[in-house]
């Protein structure tokens, strides 16, 4: 999953959470000090703080989606999604198919996941793409702020996405779940 934990040259195995133990710890307030985190293969991982470019684009894109999907989908921002019993991510934006569970969305509820990458591009394109593909998320987009590119991932499988495309922001793109919707990130970000 990442860097190995060691002490005096000995490999250490972290204590791992699962969905039930994470929710129980949340309920007691034991995780309040962690602020923003995700759970990857049972390990709690701190989320990067948002930089200005990310923080400014996120509400613009979410607002655009909310007005564009015409209640066909619910638009969730930074909502926790359990991909399996040991992996919980909080994507920047999720399009969810109604009716929306008021607890946590399941993978079957997700029509599209969007991550906005400022300082997290490599993590979003590699680790998160692999996790979303393994969970069967049909479509995953990474908005590359610095490169002004949209990385579109489709055809999920156990070894990753089978179809990955890059498009420049000004070209616009349509999600599989709403082919009539053209999202032009150049205009959204203006």
Architecture overview:
It is a single chain. The chain is an alpha+beta fold. The chain folds into two domains: 40 residues, no CATH class; 140 residues, Alpha-Beta Complex (tt1808, chain A), CATH 3.90.1570.10. 24% of the residues lie in helices and 32% in strands. It has four helices and twelve strands; from the N terminus they run E-E-H-E-E-H-E-E-E-E-E-H-E-E-E-H. The strands form four sheets. Strands 5-8-9-10-11-12 form a six-stranded mixed sheet. A hairpin with a 2-residue loop joins strand 6 and strand 7. It is globular. It starts with a strand and ends with a helix. 26% of the residues are buried.
In short:
Helices cover 24% and strands 32% of the residues. With 190 residues, it is α+β, with helices and mostly antiparallel strands. The strands form four sheets. Strands 5-8-9-10-11-12 form a six-stranded mixed β-sheet.
């Amino acid at each position: 999953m990442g860097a190995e934990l060691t002490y005096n040259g000995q490999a250490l195995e972290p204590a791992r959470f699962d969905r039930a133990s994470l929710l129980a710890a949340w309920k007691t307030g034991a995780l309040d000090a962690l602020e923003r985190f995700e759970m990857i293969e049972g390990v709690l991982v701190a989320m990067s703080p948002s930089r200005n470019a990310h923080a400014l684009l996120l509400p613009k894109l979410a607002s655009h989606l909310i007005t564009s999907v015409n209640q066909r989908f619910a638009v969730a921002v930074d909502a926790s999604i359990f991909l399996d019993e040991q992996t919980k991510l909080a994507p920047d934006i999720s399009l969810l198919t109604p009716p929306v569970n008021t607890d946590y969305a399941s993978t079957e509820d997700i029509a599209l996941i969007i991550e906005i990458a400022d300082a997290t591009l490599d993590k979003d394109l590699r680790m998160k793409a692999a996790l979303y593909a393994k969970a069967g998320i049909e479509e995953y987009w990474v908005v590359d702020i610095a490169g002004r590119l949209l990385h579109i991932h489709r055809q999920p499988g156990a070894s990753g996405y089978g179809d990955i495309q890059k498009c420049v922001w000004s070209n616009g793109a349509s999600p599989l779940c709403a082919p009539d919707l053209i999202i032009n990130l150049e205009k959204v970000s203006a």
